[in-house]
Amino acid sequence: MTFVPKPAARHPLLKTNEIGLTRRDYEAIVSTLCAGCGHDSVSAAVIQACHELSIPPHQFAKVSGIGCSSKTPSYFLGNAHGFNSVHGRMPSIATGAYLANKELKYIGISGDGDSASIGLGQFAHIIRRKVDMCYIVDNNGTYGLTKGQFSATNDRGSTSKRGVPNLYAPIDLVSLAIQLGASFVARSFSGDKQQLIPLIKAAVLHKGFAFIDVISPCVMFNNHEGSTKSYSHVRNHTEPVVDANLIMPRDEIAVEYEEGTTISVPMHDGSELHLRKLSDSYEPNDRVSALTYVQKAQEEGEIVTGLLFLEEDAVDCHDILGTTDTPFNGLAQESLCPGAEKLEQINDSLR
Amino acid sequence: MTSFNEFVIRFANVNGSGSASANGMFAKALFRMGIPVTTRNIFPSNIQGLPTWFEVRASAREYFGRRDKVDIMVAMNAETYKEDVDRLESGGYLIYDSTRGRPRELNRDDVHEIGIPITKLILSEFSDPKQRQLFKNIVYVGALSALLNMEFDVLTSMVASQYRGKDKLIQPNIRALELGRNYALKYLRCPMEVQVKSDDLIGDRILVDGNEAAALGAIYGGATLCAWYPITPSTSVADAFEKHASRLRVDPNTKKKNFAIIQAEDELSAIGMVIGAGWNGARAFTATSGPGISLMNEFLGLAYFAEVPAVVFDVQRAGPSTGMPTRTQQSDILSVAFASHGDTKHPILLPATPKECFDFAADAFDLAERIQSPVIVMTDLELGMNQTLSDPFQWDDARQFDRGKVLDFEDLEQIERYGRYVDVDGDGIGYRTLPGTHPTKGSFFTRGSSRNEWAVYTEDAQSYIHNMDRLNKKWETIRSLMPQSDVEHRNGRAGIIYYGTTATPMNESIGLLDENGITLNSMRIRSYPFGPEVVEFIDAHEKIFLVEQNRDAQMKSLLSFDLGVDPKKFVSILYYGGFSISADYIVDRVTEHYIVNKLPRLREVES
Fold this sequence. Notes:
The structure holds two protein chains of two kinds. Chain A has twelve helices and twelve strands. The longest helix of chain A has 16 residues, at about 40-55. In chain A, the strands form two sheets. In chain A, strands 2-1-3-4-8-7-12-9-11-10 form a ten-stranded mixed beta sheet, with helices on both faces. In chain A, strands 5-6 form a two-stranded antiparallel ribbon. Chain A has a single domain (about 25-350), classed as Thiamin diphosphate (ThDP)-binding fold, Pyr/PP domains (Rossmann fold, 3-Layer(aba) Sandwich). In chain A, helix 4 (about 110-120) crosses helix 5 and helix 6 runs antiparallel to helix 9. Chain A has helices at about 40-55, 70, 90-100, 110-120, 120-130, 175-180, 195-205, 230-235, 285-300, 315-320, 335, 340-350; strands at about 60-65, 80-85, 105-110, 135-140, 140-145, 150, 185-190, 210-215, 240-245, 260-265, 270-275, 305-310. Chain A is of the alpha/beta class. Chain B is α/β, with parallel strands linked by helices. Chain B has four domains: about 5-195, 3-Layer(aba) Sandwich (Pyruvate-ferredoxin Oxidoreductase, domain 3), CATH 3.40.920.10; about 210-390, Thiamin diphosphate (ThDP)-binding fold, Pyr/PP domains (Rossmann fold, 3-Layer(aba) Sandwich), CATH 3.40.50; about 405-480, no CATH class; about 485-605, 3-Layer(aba) Sandwich (Rossmann fold). Chain B has 20 helices and 25 strands. The two termini of chain B are about 35 Å apart. At the A-B interface, strand 2, helix 3, helix 5, helix 11 and helix 12 of A face strand 9, helix 7, strand 11, helix 9 and helix 10 of B. Strand 2 of chain A pairs parallel with strand 19 of chain B, so a sheet runs across the interface.
């Protein structure tokens, strides 16, 4: 691989955010993925989103499993700690890390092999536990690092590069996430920056488990005719549902929206999420209709993108567990060790 | 001849019949009379209806190991009646429910048979079907109080304290005790020749099981996260952690908790959470048994290479799948020592008593953060799930947690270039940073072994070798931090090495062997990697017995691996039947070895 440290010099015209940082402060080492990989677009969107949010980069923690997708946390937020864990087990690392320190922002990057096959169990259970994080799956329907085997999100009938059709029905992570209780569920396309960046921003700010399934074509193994996760296929079969546009409370500009077609959703930090409905019948606040909508579209061969489900005032796992306000990793010994006198009482109770 | 405070009593029951609390009360009563006791629960992997046994050994000499034969059998299970009668020592006492007849062919001429019409007594006194079932157990405890000459007050006061708050249960329980006691006093020869009498042999000691002790140690050691998956025999570690933490770790004003317990979806997830929390600077642990260790392997290897602290309690049992989950063994030694792939090795702590479970549990958290690696505390069902006499727990309020090498904001300000795996101090241990510490310094990408000492990705051979060699240097640092073995010299010519719960029958074994003219020096291994005292002990003896509760002499392999000792030096004594190893078994094997090899015994040499 090539490791190219970038010069720290800043171009005077580089735009700074509200905390005086440029986009470059949110970047990291150069990607080693294939040129044109959808995952690099996702990394770029993460960089842009975090920069626009004006959250200091080191206040993020990045976690991932194994695979092309899971390598990408090296390529954004270089000043944040990252943990490239084992295949399919990022959710448990994220859960432990979040329990240890609830004050950081957690971004998990996984892939379709990582989350829908080897890690499906952990994917399901982190949703149940409501870990407060932004969980992105770079979904290309294939195992890139091991040269193009089908993954569990690949559509039945979709062909491999060698023309072999996939025989099995796909697992739809978005439907699973809605059904299992995720409070923020979205789908986007790596090539659609306009939609993806606001979704990532909203997911980062959302309190609770936020899931974004990003269709991210694999240029090597899944971008050919016959694949349903190629650039051309996705562009031709996309039906955007809800455009998300995030407005920070300190911004004074209101979004452009038409009366009656926009709903405003307050975020836990006081900011508001304005959703523009492209489809008249769509309600992002109802779990059952969201699930029906997604699955109906799927039957019709359409990929629904946008914010598909949102639960306001969601609880997270610290709320459920009733833990203290101080992060566990900041608790002093006095708060943790009950001391000799208490131990003597325990001894007495055992006599 | 009357004997006092020296017997094994076994209760044969059906599980789910409520016998556990009655039997526990009996043991606790002896303890409160100042008599050293230990208990042993032999139970099936089942909720209701299968045979279960509870053994109490009272011993003024503090011989606490399991014995193959028992002195008193309370035979309450028709299904196991034959087996139970067979288990009695000649001259022992068989106590049974005489309401219905028993098969005559099972009678033994060489034991005392004591029939008590327990069911009949109950039927005339209680009408509630549940009480009729439960109080059978209380009736035989009442009868035993008369037969053994126990202080009745001790029992009645225990009932009173046990049901405090549920007062209407007190009177019927006491009535049931009296039913048994009065029957025995009126119709049976009381007391028997096996008796108890109050003594003062307990001192300040406590009666507790190893799992509860380990959970308390975790609380005192500052654990904030317990992530676990239910598995016998480790489940009660998490249960006890929850019980005590709910009292000791809750803010009295806000009612918020300074701990979290997550019942994970499996053991992979449990250890993942522990590692995630450890990476982020919180002390975390999981408790499991052999099958869980198998599932945790990949993650344990990652934690070894990524150098993340984690504490694991392995309460050992036998075999995979449904294989003897309620039986005890020491058969995970090698799978734990080398857990995972690609040259991994993990330090192990081997407690032998509840007190040591507490100490090692608390120490494990300091150690894991000091060495930035998983630490595995290995107990077994025998220690984990049985209440036994133990020294009281102790805590020095002056003790400070050792959080190991962690750089904070100010430290990072002083450093020009931070490298996660740079061996700055020459002890093989680098400096950690926690996420969120500094805006521009100290961040790194945690991954497995494909990185250089600056935590930058590389597959360069030299960097890999450099890292592996540094990990070996760290291993030597770990060695210097582990608790030393317990060595006792008795002027023996041969030595005996053991670890964990084999300690329980060992003082009895050594005592009995000594009476037979075989004097052994002993060493109880308390940790791995092994310290210099282990080398010294092995070097100092030509013949060494190595006692283990597994089939393949796993500790022998580990000694050879870690110290390069010739495995031929050891005579293995191996027991792997799933019950705890008994003193008789050890004595017989050692003696047999002396006979077969025509070795001179110490006394024969002297005379």
